[in-house]
Amino acid sequence: xxxxxxxxxxxxxxxxxxxxxxxxxxxxxxxxxxxxxxxxxxxxxxxxxxxxxxxxxxxxxxxxxxxxxxxxxxxxxxxxxxxxxxxxxxxxxxxxxxxxxxxxxxxxxxxxxxxxxxxxxxxxxxxxxxxxxxxxxxxxxxxxxxxxxxxxxxxxxxxxxxxxxxxxxxxxxxxxxxxxxxxxxxxxxxxxxxxxxxxxxxxxxxxxxxxxxxxxxxxxxxxxxxxxxxxxxxxxxxxxxxxxxxxxxxxxxxxxxxxxxxxxxxxxxxxxxxxxxxxxxxx
Length: 283
Ligand code: KIV
Fold this sequence. Notes:
This protein is an alpha/beta fold. The protein is 40% helix and 13% strand.
């Protein structure tokens, strides 16, 4: 089994210019496949709410739901570095609540670190978590939990003022103790500047090629979530139509009596009816 990566490994990867791959995982089976394929970090993202639980946004996701899924991911990928995404409402009320909830990811689900959204407003919380011994990944740019305040799911940091603010937020999160930073949906040049200005790894999603690593929602990468596909998503395959075709084939074969055939049945000895003392042949 491969050795589990650590926070210093990711800092070294940035220093060495080695790109970091991150993908979301929500269950044991998928986590096992992603880990076997060599992904560097698994994020149990609150995108869970939209791609698995059928909510319209990430806001309704609860701590209990996150712990349930993060525990499954850990069971499926014992050697993976796993991040638990702090859901909306689990860290905003107080540093104490944030420590208690983040602690659940580590104690109950076996996560290695947590991620939370926000800039200057969460720096005190990040410091509190790090002091409590919990590694934290920040997340700025488009922050889906507060998308309504940002005017919806759209590119952030396009004008000079907001770009300046984002560089300041990145530096403040680094100073607060974050070990890494997600940059979501920002111009690629801004992604490059932030990556150059801070010494912790940046993980981009719609933030250009110059980030120190990339993250995608696995269901988007695999073409399994058609409800909303952002333009920065690259689907490496289209599983959704393949799954629907496989299920249609199954329906047809069951209904026509061609499944299960002999190869998928336990054939019994001939004359079983008689051996069981039952007479006649039932249709
Ligand atoms: O919840 C999530 O999947 C995320 C990633 C998109 C970064 O926050």
